[in-house]
Write a structure and sequence with these properties.
By secondary structure, the protein is an alpha/beta fold. The protein has 12 helices and 14 strands. α4 packs parallel to α5 and α6 packs parallel to α8. It starts with a helix and ends in a 21-residue tail after the last helix.
Length: 462
């Protein structure tokens, strides 16, 4: 049951590259290699799961009796000491050394296995490390499955790669807006996707004096690790139209993703790799925004866990694309210094008291003097109604944007406002079910849901 579930759900897909087949013994056909790869990778995944939850369930499906003994003893010791290990591997480079003539035994060396692990005692983090090792393994074919009999860890000549050298951020001043189509709030690439609507909206944005849009890629909507071709084609269409309308695009990845589990890393890495690799040469791309407001998950998921995932995802993007900026859309300005040395563009959101904004920005700029900074989201709702009788009006919204644009101009601040349109419908997943929150969220636009400019539109740019 567990074996089938691992295969079915694609829980673990590290990068794997087999060496050319030059093994001693029997020739290995393609189907046998496929079976070996699947069983060998599943064994690694089950070992990681077992160490995390200190359970021996499923190990017998992937390891022989002699190999089980050591694993069981290690798990029992960790249970006694109240230790658990969160770990995964990100890369494997196996080479088959020997395949027996009877087709029952394989010897292989797995070079440069990239591992990440966190060791906890009494739920407190003791140790965190990224490392590279070689592994020598012997696999036996038992009742139709390749099981690991021996797995020996050895020092590797391969090392963790140095951080790629990124190109300088272009001489480009962001004047932009966060974008969803009027009838597709939080669903840009859904069933209502329409090229004509995009072209019309992008024309409005460009004519309003803006040069950049920020869009959102939902992790599950795009297919997680196995990306949906139709979604990627829609993304290409949007980028093509943006380029035609002379707009740059900040692509925000992993929207509505909030797991950050180490066991999930190979899936999210594959997701990022696929998108960045496919679009890294597109002229509309300005930057990759790794995640929207990940600091809001610090309390529920753990700050160290979130930052470790961001660290890894930043590395993944940089390894593929050294041309475009990499940023994180921090929810709070006080968190914008986090990972500053890993990012090429600093962005943050601000929905606090605007009278405090200028001083907060100057403080941030002073602490990060040598990198471009942009306000990635800001705005105010014009909703005032039965659910919020003391809310702000369109007049107040107009005054808000007038004030912010004055501050931007006086201090040379780059910006992306929230958002072009008011919306008739807000998904519950965005702000919950409370009507005063949903109704307020509907009215942040510069254009109302009927398509008419609001009073604030004249201050959409400075």
């Amino acid at each position: 049951m567990l074996r089938g579930e691992v295969y079915k759900t694609q829980q673990y897909i590290p990068n794997l590259k087999w060496a050319p087949m030059q093994n001693i013994g029997r020739r290995m056909d393609k189907q046998t290699l496929t079976n070996v790869e699947k069983n060998y990778m599943d064994a690694w995944y089950i070992k990681s799961v077992s160490y995390q939850i200190n359970s021996i369930k499923g190990i017998e499906d992937y390891y022989t009796d002699s190999a089980e003994k050591n694993l069981f003893e290690f798990i029992d010791l960790n249970k006694e000491e109240n230790i658990h290990i969160e770990s995964t591997t990100l890369e494997h480079n196996p080479n088959i050394n020997f395949f027996s003539e009877d087709g029952q035994l394989i010897s292989l060396t797995d070079y440069g296995v990239k591992e990440y692990k966190r060791i906890y005692k009494n739920d407190s983090l003791l140790y965190e490390n990224r490392e590279v090792f070689d592994y020598k393994a012997i696999l036996l074919l038992e009742d139709g499955f390749w099981r690991i009999r021996h797995l020996v860890k050895e020092p590797s000549l391969r090392k963790i790669e140095a951080e790629p050298v990124m190109k300088d951020y272009p001489d480009f001043e962001i004047k932009g807006i966060n974008y969803y189509p009027k009838n597709s709030a939080w669903d840009t690439f859904g069933k209502n996707f329409d090229e004509k609507i995009l072209a019309k909206d992008f024309e409005i944005i460009r004519n309003a004096g803006l040069n950049t849009i920020r869009i959102f890629i939902q992790y599950e909507d795009f297919g997680k690790a196995e990306l949906i071709p139709e979604k990627l084609e829609k993304l290409k269409t949007l980028l093509d139209i943006a380029e035609e309308k002379e707009l740059k695009v900040i692509v925000t990845l992993f929207d509505f993703y909030g797991d950050y589990s180490v066991l999930d890393w190979t899936l999210t890495i594959r997701h990022a790799e696929t998108i960045v690799q496919q679009f890294k040469e597109h002229d509309a791309i300005l930057a990759w925004d790794v995640k929207n407001e990940p600091d809001l998950d610090f309390e529920s998921r753990g700050k160290k866990k979130v930052l470790a995932w961001l660290h890894q995802t930043i590395s993944t993007i940089k390894r593929i694309d050294q041309k475009h900026a990499v940023t994180v859309g921090w929810a709070k300005i006080e968190n914008a210094t986090l990972l500053k040395d890993r990012l090429t563009l600093i962005t943050f959101h601000y929905y606090e008291d605007i009278s405090l904004f200028k001083d907060a920005y100057i403080k941030l700029k002073t602490s990060i003097p040598n990198k471009p900074i942009a306000l990635g989201e800001f705005g105010i709702s014009s909703y005032r109604g039965i659910w919020k009788p003391y809310g702000t009006s369109e007049n107040a919204q107009e005054e808000f944007h007038k004030t912010m644009q004055t501050v931007f101009k006086e201090n040379n601040i780059q910006f992306l406002s929230w958002t072009l349109y008011d919306f008739d419908h807000i998904p519950t997943a965005v702000v919950g079910k409370l009507p005063w929150r949903k109704n307020a969220q509907k009215k942040f636009g510069f254009i109302n849901s009927k398509g008419n400019p609001k009073k604030s539109f004249k201050y959409i740019s400075n």
